[in-house]
Amino acid sequence: xxxxxxxxxxxxxxxxxxxxRRRLQKLTGLKLKDTLKRKNPYLFKxxxxxxxxxxxxxxxxxxxxxxxxxxxxxxxxxxxxxxxSGGGVAPSEGxxxxxxxxxxxxxxxxxxxxxxxxxxxxxRQSQNFEALRRRMVKLQKNFDALVGYCYGNKEFKPKSSVAxxxxxxxxxxxxxxxxxxxxLKIIRVMKGRPIKHKVEYNEAWDKAINRFTREFIEDFCDNxxxxxxxxxxxxxxxxxxxxxxxxxxxxx
Length: 252
Prior knowledge:
5 strands; single chain
């Protein structure tokens, strides 16, 4: 599918808007205690963290950094790959895009970066492709299974035990568009749009820091302002998570 740079700019802008909309929803809907349950209180203590805001910022940075990768893949990479390839939705779990020609059925699983698989998930991906291949056998077309990584430049050597090809970064986008420079065009047409979004996001971020810090101090600090590590650890790892005694507890 041929797409002009102007059309690409409009498409990329639309998907960036969606990315930031989802990102803001994730940030504003986040609950302090939900994130605390997933983090290691022993590590905070072991690294000498004694400031409530430092813990809060560490929690938010780690959570949003991890969350952003998934949101960006869903809101930006996957729809972009579908749009510029002219493909449709694949009728199978674990496969995102299907492109048909008169002789070939190309099934694509779109991934963000190259570090998404372990042995089990790689096996499941092969099984997903194989299930789709069996469904498509009646078409009597060459079935081509591809995992496409939207960034990175790792080289992949085909293995007999793996039923799919793998392409990353420039090679993946060139496969979809026939344009060796397309991977650069994506970032080029973003222009100053992310900076405009960042103003609104930073405002929401600062409010989240203030909101979380206030809640953390109320629930996990003693009357002198010190972190009550036993209360925090009990909340995180205790068999029974009783109500947090706000502002109570002895200083560590």
